[in-house]
Amino acid sequence: MADPVFANLPTTVFEEMSGLARELGAINLGQGFPDDPGPQALRAKAAEAVLDGYNQYPPMAGIPELREAVAGHYARTQGLDFDWRSEVTVTSGATEALAAAFLALVEPGDEVAVFQPAYDAYLPLIRRAGGVPRLVSLKPPHWRLDEAAVAAAFGPKTRLVVLNNPINPAGVVLPDEDLERLARACVANDAIAICDEVWEQVVFAPARHRPLIALPGMRQRTVKIGSAGKMFGLTGWKVGFVCAAPALTGAIAKAHQFLTFTTPPNLQAAVAWGLANSDDWFETMPKDLARSRDRLTDGLTREGFAVLPSQGTYFLNIDLPASGISLGDRAFALKAVHEAGVASIPVSAFYETDPVTTILRLCFSKADATLDEGVARLARARDLALKG
Ligand code: PMP
Ligand code: GLN
Predict the structure, then answer these.
(1) 193 sits in which H/E element
(2) Is the CB of 263 within 6 Å of ligand 1?
(3) What is the pTM assigned to this prediction?
(4) Would the CB of 237 count as within 6 Å of ligand 1?
(5) What is the mean pLDDT of the chain?
């Protein structure tokens, strides 16, 4: 018999919208990926490693050069002190890291607090691991972890809490105050935090990313997840990392060994080189993306759309009713891709309960001409929506 948890799941909204964009020849401002090929030097290193490097099974926890490079990167950029031997595991993307963390740390019946908007992988994986999601909704336009949200996240059975920061799709980098509130609650409730920080390098000044694991009481109870795909704008590479205290790392590595066991060694080698040699990239990449964000914001604003601020990620959001659109987000997204040739992501897809249906997510990690044409097509979609 088919497994009821997975058999009844819809295809993810990212695949659905990219599929429609491909089929209809639409501009794709939906799924989050850059439309440039990514840093040349890093791709050259990967090619070199395929041709001249080691192409057999690497060590289960990742090649030592990459584990050391990850620890070194976090020491330099976030002041963290991971021991690469006992606290760093390389995974096949952040997605595998999430799966391994849930499989390793959730016991059947445990409650796992998840803030909505929630990245699509969290709930199915938590349920498949036997966990019971405890959903807490964050609200636009600020999506803050206020007192009420943090209080609602914890009950007597809450063992884990999932935090995505910077937040996809909100484009919010949580302020210290919110992180401190959550850290205090994790300590008070003896809960483990699974921190999905894949967007940690895609943060626009003056916003600053602060890892939850650095807060008082969190070092031993936090699992920090990163992704080279997001750090270097190479989303198809699927090289991720999990950093956590040795006891947590030990359990997660056991799950990882039966999920994928390893991650392609040549890509690991290239990422290791990138982390050790790309300080310039981490300066210029967010600046370039901030320019793209501003270009899309300005174009949309000129056309009368109400744009919410974006402090990080590849995404900004528009408020549909404030932009003169009374259709729900999904209906408008479908109309826009089918009738105006532009794909986007309805934010309601990130909510399982009490969905926010008034916000549309747009990806701005694209060439200027694509962004400009996207604006024109969104304006056309709004005209069509007004006509009914
Ligand atoms: N978490 C979040 C919040 C994401 O946005 C993404 C992908 N964009 C992932 C996890 C998955 O990362 P990866 O591609 O490294 O598996
Ligand atoms: N994280 C990407 C996004 O939010 C999607 C990744 C995927 O399709 N699994 O657009």
Answers:
(1) strand 192-196
(2) no
(3) 0.97
(4) no
(5) 97
